[in-house]
Amino acid sequence: xxxxxxxxxxxxxxxxxxxxxxxxxxxxxxxxxxxxxxxxxxxxxxxxxxxxxxxxxxxxxxxxxxxxxxxxxxxxxxxxxxxxxxxxxxxxxxxxxxxxxxxxxxxxxxxxxxxxxxxxxxxxxxxxxxxxxxxxxxxxxxxxxxxxxxxxxxxxxxxxxxxxxxxxxxxxxxxxxxxxxxxxxxxxxxxxxxxxxxxxxxxxxxxxxxxxxxxxxxxxxxxxxxxxxxxxxxxxxxxxxxxxxxxxxxxxxxxxxxxxxxxxxxxxxxxxxxxxxxxxxxxxxxxxxxxxxxxxxxxxxxxxxxxxxxxxxxxxxxxxxxxxxxxxxxxxxxxxxxxxxxxxxxxxxxxxxxxxxxxxxxxxxxxxxxxxxxxxxxxxxxxxxxxxxxxxxxxxxxxxxxxxxxxxxxxxxxxxxxxxxxxxxxxxxxxxxxxxxxxxxxxxxxxxxxxxxxxxxxxxxxxxxxxxxxxxxxxxxxxxxxxxxxxxxxxxxxxxxxxxxxxxxxxxxxxxxxxxxxxxxx
Length: 522
Fold this sequence. Notes:
Elements: H1 8-21, E1 27-28, E2 34-35, H2 43-54, H3 61-74, E3 81-83, H4 85-96, E4 98-101, E5 104-109, E6 112-118, H5 123-127, E7 134-138, E8 141-142, H6 150-157, E9 164-171, E10 176-183, E11 185-188, E12 192-197, E13 202-207, H7 214-227, E14 232-236, E15 243-244, H8 245-255, E16 261-266, E17 272-276, E18 287-292, H9 299-309, E19 314-317, E20 325-331, E21 337-346, H10 361-373, E22 390-392, E23 398-400, E24 409-410, H11 420-425, H12 429-441, H13 451-459, H14 463-474, H15 485-501, H16 503-510, H17 515-521
Helix pairs in contact: 1-10, 7-8, 8-9, 12-15, 15-16
């Protein structure tokens, strides 16, 4: 069956909406979570006990409780949500910024666990695990031929710091099985993907979320860039759904002069909590650019709003998501949690950028789809702002509230000749899967190549472009790349670079022709 490409962006936004529900687009204080210990019998508790004890048939009362909690929260706002134990654990690890494991990126290829790339300097890399290895057994647990879900695989490979695990692997390049003993250790989950120079004086930092370690990672990158001569700074928070607001505030503090307002919150009692910049700023004078898009939310919008409202820099891209709510977590003893909205936040000029949610959660998340259909992603004049909700910065610039951060410089969705489906596809997991499979067929042809030699090699062939087009058709996607060849080639080479050399090299490739970067550098 052929897949109609006009629905591809809609699928993209549907996936985004699901991510929001499951814990994406977070914005909450990084405060100590508290445990519910109240054992008093409420009406709800009595009902659950009554069903559990006396109902005629066997009933899973846990599922009833989950359903009840979800129904209650659905009456509030789109970001007050219940997180089951498995999802809460995953989100908590992501926001903590590390976990204990063996340190490999893997991909379920056919019926086996294939190693894409060991984490640099991690336990697996130190033990000699290589890209392309298949993990057959974790101790005595068989992993191949079982189609295990990712969470089951993670549980087999995780453990406590210093604990041992013996892997049985198949090394395709040598055609033999090996047993490798690995000592588990703390594995960072980086929130800063790259910090690199785009030219002699322009630094670039890509932040994928705001976790506990984000400010520290950002400062490491910023210090390094300044030592290399960076005078201007580009902060990329495209597709960054948010996280701990303190981390975004700390980064804004590095950019703003002392005593400038960064953000303020207001709860239902009318209590206002203002946060100002301190004297510690390490980048208060150079040019600042913040890149946003329709998936930049929450803490990303706090950072962009602080820069825009204080006339500190230029915001480029497309209107951000529009989440101006603050959540607090309440943990339960079974590992689940409720994330409840406790306040609204406001940018320095006093604007709320929260988009309306009075029509229900489904309509709220579908608003992102409407930006595609109404042309907003391609034409600045199609952006719907509430003209009556306007504010002025200190220098007199007009900014709007009521639904996201509107950029100072609009840059449309990167497409070539109207083929918008291709732009979304190239940033999906499909491309990574394809590249792994190509490398798996002939990894030796790249062995020993420097990054410069690799780039020359990739420029001289259409082999992978042609194979990717065939791969897409073969998977039922009726998407012809003919008019977008250069775009496809750029992301293909970038993904090869990522899997062969590392994340930094992916950005070195794809940013060269990135529309927002070009708008700044020209």
